[in-house]
Amino acid sequence: MNGLSPGMHLVLVLATPLVGAVVAWLLGARGRDAVRQSAAVTALLTLAAAGWLVVRYLASPEAAAGEPYAVVTLPWLVDGIFDVRLSLGLDGLSIWLFGLSALLSLTAVLVSWGAIQERPVGFYVLLLVLEAAMLGVFAARDVILFYVFFEFTLVPLFFLIGIWGHDERRKAAVTFFIYTLSGSVLTFLGLLTIVLWNASHTGTVTFDIDGLTAGLAAHPLPMNAQGGWLQWIVFVALFAGFAIKVPIVPFHTWLPLAHVEAPTGGSVDLAGILLKLGIYGFLRFSLPMLPDASAAAAPWIFGLGVAGIVYGALVALVQTDLKRLVAYSSVSHMGYCVMGLFALEPVAVEGATLQLVNHGLSSAGLFALVGMIYERFHTRNIASLGGVASRAPWLAALFMLFTFSSIGLPGLNGFVGEFMILAGSFQRAWSGVSEACRPAYLTLALLAVAGVVLGAWYMLWAVERVLFGPSREPPTGGSAHAHHEADEHGHHGAAGGATDDLAWHELAALVPLAVFVFWIGLVPATFLEPAAGPLRGIMQPSARAFAERMLEPDRGPAPGKIVAIP
Amino acid sequence: MQDISPATLLVLVPLLPLVGAVLTLLLGRVLGGRAHLPAIAGIAGAAAVAVVLLLGTANQVGGAHGPHAEPVRPVEMISTIWQWATVADAYSPPAGSPAAIPGTAVGGGAGGTARAFTIPVALRLDPLTATMLTIITCIGLVVAVYSIGYMHHDPGYPRFFAVFSLFVFSMSMLVSASNFLVVYVFWEAVGACSYLLIGFWFTKPEAARAAKKAFLVNRIGDFGLAIATFLLWMTYGTLDFHDTLSPDGTILPGILGQTRLADAAGIVGGALGTAICLCLLLAACGKSAQLPLHVWLPDAMEGPTPASALIHAATMVTAGIYLVARCAPLFMACPGALVAVSLVGATTALVAGLIATVQNDLKRVLAYSTISQLGYMFASLGTGTLLGFSAAIFHLVTHAFFKALLFLGAGSVMHSMGNVIDMRRFGGLRRIMPVTAATFLVGSLALAGIAPFSGFFSKDEILASLHAKGWPNAHGEHHDAAPSAHASLWNAGFVATPAAARGAAAEAVHVLEPLDRPATWQALFWMSLFTAGLTAFYTFRAVFMTFTGPTRVPEEAGHHAHESPPVMAGPLVILAVPAAVAGWWLFRTQWLAHFLSATPSFAAPAVAATATPHAFHMDLALQGSLAAAIGVVIAAIGHLGRRSDGPQMERFLGPLEPFFANRCYIDQLYSALVVRPLEGLALLAALFDRAVIDGLVNAVARLPVALGGVVRRLQSGLLQRYALAGVMGVLAIVLVLAWRLRG
Fold it and tell me: Nearest-CA residue of chain A relative to B726?
């Protein structure tokens, strides 16, 4: 198979879930088993193909040189001033998110195994379409494909929440859709302005991301009154869409609602992948194309990131619904990514980029486990749960693992990103800002470190209440199903615990995530190195603009370095 | 073993327990009642290797009996296992980077480069590490063997040994790591093992709560360690302890490397240095249960007793001592921070000693006693003399033996009393369990500091180190060259510190540094001496209540009240030997002090210059013994031969008794000052989230409705219409923009 060119390989990966969706649809008549099995096989095949592509990428000379890999370009309209091409490809920045999308799609299929009883055909078809869209958005190298895939993640999820969600699914789906759509319409406007600005200065209409970045570097959007503050306007337009996607506080209220109502598979994809699109958008567009506005906004967004960390953690602390608690923990953890990104320091930015993958693993794992707990006990109310560890020890062990990953326990993945974000932010605060900004920056950095304590607090509180304590039957009341199950199993408690423990498909959904939790924690260099090169190119303009802004008034004080060993 | 390099051996110490832990975890179900085999084999292997390394290192240090005045050459070996992470340099080019302003070389590196973030997982071997490794693995082995008997029949048998083994791995890594970030990693890892063991019986709500509490209080300490790590990185441009050779052949000095330590100006003092040291102290307070972060340790007694013995008495809680000792050169540059260490230590020793006197739960007496003894070690560390540092480690070693012994003894009692541990409910047990009683007595004599048991000698050295600071002339010593040497650094460090940090840190310096005068040290000495008396009192109160008086057993014990089986009694006897004689031997030969002085951190000129000739101070020994004797006598008057359910401490303390019995209300204070306000804030935030933010969003969403008929047609509720409207709006704006741009 060495003959398979990387580009074709990439197209194959993107096509597999779509073909699988068609197959699942055709198998619809044969019942749920056939559909879910075909979906699992499709997700598995896609994962294998995507994983193999990742391995090929890592071994390729392009990876070493930090260049795009597996580039496929399809001329669409190349005529006169028009140079419109559809372009796919991967680089060090997108490669892990691409792989993560394939991995979590399999997880999403497997966690839905028993949970989705009704209309399975539609469910699995949408899940596979969503997978194709997620893979596509990270492989897109031009604005058109990016935006199409970006929006196309929205539609399947809208129906997944609206049809297979819980009690308030309609409200959640509509809120989710309107909220993110209104943001992304503004993003679309901003992107178009960029394209037109570039066209009016270079004389070529191109949608190619690299071409636009180069064009805007040569002819930056104006950042003054004469130019109508156009760079600011475009930045705000892009920010609207990306900030809602992340979500950055205070644009987060759609998230808990969507998560709580979404079926488990939808939550896994939503938390694991879709939240990353916001940060990914900042990295692909805002920071490299609008460096002056990014630099000017950086302190404020940095502050919003910290606010999100603390605010999300505080709100999580008083949640009574386990899934809502995990949703707010996502708000808090995405705050770390925002903070790290806008610290504009290499250590923090690389940490933030890794944290995208980390959060994808830990939050997907936690949402999957919350779903499994719900299937067993028919409640997500923390007060009604308890003693899960005695009844489902493996479930509890994995819950603890992902909790530890989420609260940044060293040796696991979460620590690496969190620590690098905090270290880089601290470095920025210590010696990378003007004397006037320093107190604010230091305070924010300290607050973020304190957020680590809060993060442990709400997660361990939930663990204590849900997993530990005496085994108990939640007051399920109307749920006859639960009683039926209890009768079926005959006995509960420590002795009969295994009956409630993980089934094969649940283990298969979680164990791969757990492997990466350890892998990233122990050898983060594997995951950090590919991204370093592309990130350098992406971040340099903004970092330089930031340094210039900060040092303009005065050349700044001597930074915090003191010691000179001869 | 000659063919194996020391570097390989060093890796084996943590590796073998790790393999043991993984095997236990994987094969636990299969092995069942023999699940201890992989764990014990791993720990035993590690212990053997650790002893080999200890002897090898001692060989390198050489001549334990040579004249003490002769300077000792620092001994260390570094072995890098893998690169954890590397992030090269700053995005902004040197010209625009504030880190590259001319005249500022970051962290001693070449001028113009930012701080590279290079984290090697490197292990080190030096006398301090070798000592710690030996203690951890040897006591770990004894406690593991004991656990075979104690944990017998527990459904979580394999889980216990897996986590136990994992702890030995983490702790070994912690003391052999040669990089602050790696220290941080295992600092939290031992905390996680502790969490898992405290919550071992997770169906008990108290155990689950205690585990969570331990983790969270420790996280506050970890917060300090994280800040200290960041500050160290900012200050020195590296996180390595050791010097490294850069590719171009220049030496990159590590924070505690020999290059930097040899240079009087190498370590930062002043406000910045003090801030770093105080953050390290906060971390140490968390892990070593010092005021005000001690509250987790008594609750940690909910865990299985062998875990209490190894983790919450002998090893993990000494990590704070290790950290401060390892960073001795950093503290030496900050007299204010040193005073703070002693103040925290002596105060904790006293308060915990007082609380221990009113506890009726045998394990809690021992827990508070552990806090108190750790306080002694901190008091000694804070003297900032070679004597103080080595006395602290000396006490750490003897304490590890006798406190592990006492905990295992308490476990033996608990095992036989049907898990009852309230001393008022049993008594006179020496007739039922003679081996436990005899070994417990040996441990108690050592803890109380009765000559010639081991605690006497180490405690005597601690008192001597405090005494030397309080009455410098009496010891004919004057090593006060340090303050003048710090003067210039103080300014340098001060100027370079960001203003925001400068304020708070300078404040701390102004408060703390004036305290470094003989009167303070005299007060600390008297506090410690009084605590010595308290220690003897509460220890023997426990001994008398448990083992003397009429024989009584609680009904929970049924007819099973008996001496523990050999697999448990054996370890008691084994530990009793060093608890009895180790102090005497180490004191007479000064083997440990000499050995430790070759640790790079202690061989640094700043520390080595404070060395004093070894001497035995008869007057101090008499004072210490007198205090201990008084304590024992009072305990005997109160409890010897009496029923243990009689009147308790209220006879001595009167109205103060409830104050101490309620642990000085510190838990309540935390609840009122930290937990409740934060919970209130969280409720407020949740309310704000729902009412204000969500409300605003909904208001914005309703705006079109308010506009009424104009857009009524769009309010059809059909998603397609919304989408279409969006796209059309976009197109309109695009057209306008395009037109403007063309024009």
Answer: A185
State chain B's mean pLDDT as an integer. 80
B208-267 residues touching A, CB cutoff 8 A: 208-209, 211-212, 215-216, 219-220, 222-223, 226-227, 229-230, 233-237, 253, 259-260, 263, 265-266
| Number of Cβ pairs < 8 A linking chain A and chain B | 261
Highest mean pLDDT among B180-189, B512-521, B682-691: B180-189
Task: Tell me the C-alpha distance between B476 and B460, whole Å.
Answer: 19
ipTM of the complex: 0.86
Number of domains within chain A: 1
Instruction: For B277-297, write each residue's pLDDT tens digit.
Output: 999 999 999 999 898 888 888
pLDDT given at position B164: 92
The answer to whether A453 faces chain B, any CB pair under 8 Å, is yes
**Inside any domain, residue A211:** no
Phi, psi of A340 (to 5 degrees): -65, -40
Structural domain contains residue A436: yes
Domain that holds residue A363: 297-381+395-461+496-552
Q: Is residue A529 part of a domain?
A: yes
- In the numeric block, which tokens belong to residue A550? 């900060």
User: In the 3-class helix/strand/coil scheme, how is B133-193 assigned residue by residue?
Assistant: HHHHHHHHHHHHHHHHHHCCCCCCHHHHHHHHHHHHHHHHHHHHECEHHHHHHHHHHHHHH
Is A320 a domain residue? yes
Task: Identify the three-state secondary structure at position B427.
Answer: strand
The answer to whether the Cβ–Cβ distance between A317 and B682 falls below 8 Å is yes
Phi-psi region of B104 (alpha: psi -120 to 50; beta: other; left: phi over 0): beta
* pTM, full prediction: 0.87
Q: Does the distance separating the beta carbons of A564 and B108 come in below 8 Å?
A: yes
The answer for B 93-152 residues in CB contact with A (under 8 A) is: 93, 96-99, 101, 103-108, 115, 117
Kindly state the DSSP code that residue B386 receives in the 8-state scheme: H
* A326 burial via Cβ count (<10 Å: 0-12, 13-18, 19+): buried
Query: Is residue A311 within 8 Å of residue B685, measured between CB atoms?
Result: yes
Identify which of B187, B268, B679 has the shortest CB distance to residue A562: B268
Say what the pLDDT of residue A368 is: 92
